[in-house]
Amino acid sequence: MTKNNLLTFKFGVSLCYHRRALVGDADLDIARDVSRFDEQNTNDNIHITMHNETNTPGNMAIFRRIVTASVLLATTLLAACTSVYVDTQTKQVPVAQMKKVADPKPVQLVFEFQTKGAPNARATDTLSSAVSKEVKDSGLFSTVSSNPQPNAGMLSVTLNNVPITEDAASKGFVTGLTFGLAGNTVTDGYICTVSYLAPNRTTPIVKTARHAIHTTIGNASASANAQKSPSALDAINQMTLDVLSNALDDLSRDPAFE
User: N or C: which end of the chain has fewer CB within 10 A?
Assistant: First the structure.
């Protein structure tokens, strides 16, 4: 093989755990462009930087195989070293414990998931069904619809993901050959705001509840007030049920709620 046909490259992989407001299992979407992998709102972002001096089809095929193998290895390492826990200080309120409504009214439900106050459409779509089901199951309203209804109130539910601790990258997360040896815990906070505006009223009733999800990376110990979840998606779903039930319970007990 001549020098011109040699594939020379510089290949570096840095693994950085980033909090994700959504949601989803810790799956990775591998970008078609092998020179960059960086999708917004994914749990695990892998940044790949490479350089090759000979951009031939054969060399690029080898290049792609190397990249794919490296990404798969990195994914396995990250999955093995990451655990997700739901904070137990905020517990789900059973429907039986909520205050009963004598004459439930219809309501239009509007739900939005936010990341640091900014709308997160992907997370909203993922959790909409669970939020709607919980509101219906609460028994606080006669009917729940995403569309306007005659003589219906308006229930707005906002779930905002806010950072509580620094992410692993800013805390100097150790990667490479020492991957997993340095432990960190990342905590995401969630603020659930429920705003109910009754028909023919001008002032809404607003209730707020808070929750948290902890993610341990490497050899970090789990929080004492946390329960391990099978996956990130399970943690998000449980957190949503917990925090929303608390906000709805507070709403049911407000004297102005009818």
Answer: N
